[in-house]
Amino acid sequence: MPEAGGRAPESAGPAPEAVPVPVAPDPVGPVPVADDGALPLPTPLQVLRSLESGPKGLTEERAEERLAAVGPNTLPARRTPSLPRRMARGLRDPFTSVLLCLGLVSAAVTSWGTALVILALVTVSCAVRTAGEHRADRSSAALRALVADTATVLRRTAEGRREPRVREVPVDELVPGDVIRLGPGDLVPADVLLLRASGLRVHQAPLTGESAPVAKHPPEDAPSLAEPGPGLFDRPHLCFQGSGVASGSGTAVVVATGADTQLAAGQAAARERGIGAFDRSVYGISWILIRFMLLTPPLVLMADAAFGEHGGGTLPFAVAVAVSLTPEMLPVVVTTVLARGGVALARECRVIVRRLPALHDLAAMDVLCVDKTGTVTQDRPVVDRALDAYGRDDARVLRWAALNAAWTLQLAELPAPDALDEALLDADADPCGEDEAYEGVTALPFDHARRLSTAVLRRPGVLGAHTLVVKGAVENVLERCALDEDARARVRALAARQAADGLRVLAVATATRTPRARDWTPADERGLALTGLVTFRDALASTAPDALHALRDRGIAVRLVTGDHPETAARAWHELGLDPRPGSGGLLTGERIDALSDEELAGAVTRTAVFARCAAPHKARIVTALRAAGHTTGFLGDGVNDLAALRAADVGLCPRDAVAVAREGADVVLGDKDLAAVARAVDAGRRGGVAIATYLRVALSSNLGNALAMLVAVLLLPFVPMLPAQVLAQNLCFDAAQLSFAFDRRPRAVPARPTALDPRELLRFLTRFGLLNALADLATFAVIALTAHSAVTGAEPEVFHGGWFTENLLTQGLVILLLRGGSGRVRGPVGLAAAGLGVLGVLIPFTPLGPALGTAPLPPVAYALLALVLGLYGCALAAARARYAARHLGGQP
Ligand SMILES: Nc1ncnc2c1ncn2[C@@H]1O[C@H](COP(=O)(O)OP(=O)(O)OP(=O)(O)O)[C@@H](O)[C@H]1O
Ligand SMILES: [Mg+2]
Question: What job does this protein perform (predicted)?
Fold first, then answer.
């Protein structure tokens, strides 16, 4: 045992980038894992010993004690922030900042009332939003348990027992000293030191931002440990929490958990995904509005200076106008709508939305790419036949394939066999039985890029010969076989015929080699002799055809993107009953995609329905090309080879039993195997989208109308057209009423086509309806002028204020009712809000609050005329709305 290199880190001095000293309770000392490179480092065995563990893991009791001592393996960053911190975070959105600036301006000109109201607005919006987020967080925490991750760990039941049990434990229960197994698609659950590995490559993107997977292997000997790479994350023998296994497998000892991992230490700031389509459009709209707001006060002041002198009251008024333009409830409505959508989806369809804005992207999605295996198929393949190179049944082919599966599983210490290997083992229960007594030497497990797996075997007693058994995708095996062109073509045609029947096909080949001292590598997989083909049946998931049709009916085009044989893919597509070939593109293979430039691919993807023999980079390129072609693209996949595409898509979806890295990378996790949930999630997204768009339309068009009318009034009147207190009181009423959209009962009709928040469309809408709103205000001015028995200029300011206040609240009620969209009677919160506004608008001028706001009631006849104006306005609004919907919204509600 090479002990000599062992040094405790205390004596090595503080290392600049050392793995933080774990965590193991006394008497376990600090774990010497790395140092500054000048001193030799400990061997894995020493590390195991210092953690009071061994190659066979901890005992259950020891693990339990240690868990109690060091605490669960959870990231502190995942803990929910405190209430004050949340409130403070709420202040960071642009509207709140602008409001606060306006508040400061008001305070500076000692307009205390305005400043106070602004403060109230900010507090209310922050509080409602924080409460909404809190509720959403609580329910999603409960849901996260549904998709909680587990790790494969080796534990012994008692000190005396030698053989460990391999079992799955929740990731939070891992402790330093645990020996774990890593397989393709696993998330590395803690910081670990590798003891053994085979073909292991991990994605460290969450830690280093580097997208290509890096090779990891255990320190073969002490000197290699003493040669640290340039950075901690470059060390080949350490894997870090948050990375994902791209291929291969490994066995490792946990050295740091919970707050002691590099991820938690913040040395690797977890990289967030860039902002999505939804955030971009909300930000776009926000900035347009903020420019409006900032322009308003100078405009009002200029108009005032040029045309009228209203004395010192103008600046507070100008500030109040700017405040009234702000849709300050936008962040609240967005958060609440999305959170409610997410909670409802989880409850009703068991769909977990991990990133709430993804709901909007789901609503906007017009293309969904799905991978085949495990998504549209059941992923329970069963061996159908084993054929020799001429197509005759040959049981030996199955035996070789099963030997390969059994030994790769065992030698590579994979946590579990993949579906094809499992089918082979089921079909040939005892491949290592008496008559075929082979022993495993080493294995090169399957990886998606090679599409092969290899086991190196030997016969006990037979010296001087090792047998390579290779199985994998037909093309990949054939290109490594020593065959003439005719034979190759014949086997390819045989495989294509099998695939065209909807079967999955693997080729099996062998080679005899002389034993050797150095490692076997993929470069040795050549000059093989073809043994034959094994075919598998993997039935379509029964719900898949209906679910995909439901998506097509919602205006979402479906694309099949798979690693499988082109004929198998084409057959699956056919069985799904979707349009055989949209456009002329037909089917594209990964090889053809490689030959296309990005521009050519963007053209080709829109015409192609089925993509076959796609590796992970192809899948990601297809998604990127679809997005470049202007499609909001979703990707539904479950494998480690789908991760890049899940991340590249606007919205990534995966089934619940997807591999851990896919679940981590996806925005939406389907709780059940049923694909129909996707359509339901799309509907929920679209409903939420309608609610948010409605809020924006209502709030912005009436705010804009009011601001326009105020500008005109400043020009016409010798007095300030509205006291700041009135502007703000009115604004508070609007805000409260508009909040009801967040709680709106569902509009009955869900949009039949993809919907997205489009800033340009919104701008068009709000200029039209804003102008209409301003017209109603001007008509009201005329009514007041006529009925107050003097020219407008001679009207009592209080009567004018009162009349306009009443009209404003009533028109707002009308706008809420008529622009709400959707069919069905208005009931529930929206109806109540509209009615409430009307009542307040009419009554307040009569109450003691009236004089406080500078308002007084109108003469009775004015109310009759006002009713007329409102009736006309309502008709015009309904007509304009219907016309607009027909023209610009494609008849959508
Ligand atoms: N365990 C395995 N051993 C050998 N070859 C395999 C194994 N699993 C898959 N293959 C081969 O590799 C090919 C590609 O597999 P990959 O996992 O990349 O895609 P897939 O799972 O077939 O398709 P999808 O993308 O729809 O999930 C398979 O079609 C099969 O021929
Ligand atoms: Mg797959």
Answer: Mediates magnesium influx to the cytosol.
Residue 406 near ligand 1, beta carbon < 6 Å: no
Report, as an integer, the average pLDDT of 315-339. Answer: 79
512-535, pLDDT tens digit by residue? 998 887 788 888 898 999 999 999
Residue at which a domain ends, from 671, 705, 722: 671
Residues 6+ apart with CB under 8 A from 328: 95, 96, 99, 121, 122, 125, 735
Domain shared by 661 and 693, yes or no: no
Domain that holds residue 338: 86-137+276-343+682-888
384 is catalytic: no
Residues 500 and 639 in one domain: no
Which three-class secondary structure state does DSSP give residue 185? coil
Question: CA 201 → CA 185, 452, 648, 757, distances in Å?
Answer: 11, 16, 21, 41
Angle at 691 between CA 688 and CA 697, to 5 degrees: 140
| Pairing, β 452-458 against β 586-589 | unpaired
476 strand-pairing partners: none
494: in domain: yes
Does residue 843 register a pLDDT over 60?
A: yes
Residues 709 and 798 in one domain: yes
Closest ligand by atom to 538 CA: 1
CA 194 to ligand 1 center in whole angstroms? 27
**pLDDT tens digits, 25-37:** 333 444 444 444 4
pLDDT of residue 789: 56
Burial class of residue 81 in the structure, from the number of CB atoms within 10 Å of its CB (0-12 exposed, 13-18 middle, 19+ buried): middle
Pocket test for ligand 1, best of 408, 425, 451 (most atoms within 8 A of CB): 451
In the prediction, which pLDDT does 16 show? Answer: 34
Task: Please check the confidence at residue 566 and state whether its pLDDT lies above 70.
Answer: yes
Work out how many domains the chain is built from and give that number.
4
Is there a domain that residue 152 lies in? no
User: Are residue 859 and residue 784 in the same domain, yes or no?
Assistant: yes
Q: Are residues 693 and 779 in the same domain?
A: yes
Q: Which atom of ligand 1 is closest in space to residue 638's alpha carbon?
A: 27
Rounded mean pLDDT of 240-263? 88
Q: Which ligand is nearest to the CA of 475?
A: 1
* Of 647-661, 750-764, 805-819, the least confident: 750-764
CA of 627 to the centre of ligand 2 (A): 22
Angle, CA 131 vertex, CA 130 and CA 132 arms, to 5°: 90
In ligand 1, which atom is closest to the CA atom of 420? 1
Please name the residue that has the structure tokens 């709400």: 820
Neighbours of 681 (CB within 10 A): 27
Band (416; pLDDT cuts 50, 70, 90): confident
- Residues 842, 864: contact at Cβ < 8 Å? no
What contacts 267, CB < 8 A, 6 or more positions away?
A: 17, 232
Q: Is 615:621 a contact under the CB 8 Å cutoff? A: no
* Between 320 and 188, residue with greater pLDDT: 188
Same domain, 504 and 653: no
Average pLDDT over residues 239-256: 90
Q: Give pTM, 2 decimals.
A: 0.82
Pairing of strands 452-458, 466-472: antiparallel
Q: Where a domain ends, among 671, 702, 727?
A: 671
Q: What's the longest Cα–Cα distance across the chain?
A: 119
578 close to 552: Cβ distance less than 8 angstroms: yes
Could you tell me if residue 207 is inside a domain? yes
What CATH code is carried by the domain that includes residue 66? Answer: 2.70.150.10
Same domain, 667 and 572: yes
Q: Based on the fold, state whether residues 488 and 566 are members of the same structural domain.
A: no
Query: From CA 527, how far away is CA 707, in angstroms rounded?
Result: 80
Residue in 186, 371, 642, 674 annotated catalytic: 371
Q: DSSP labels for 424-446? A: HHHHSS-TTSSTT--EEEEEEEE
Report pLDDT for 600.
93
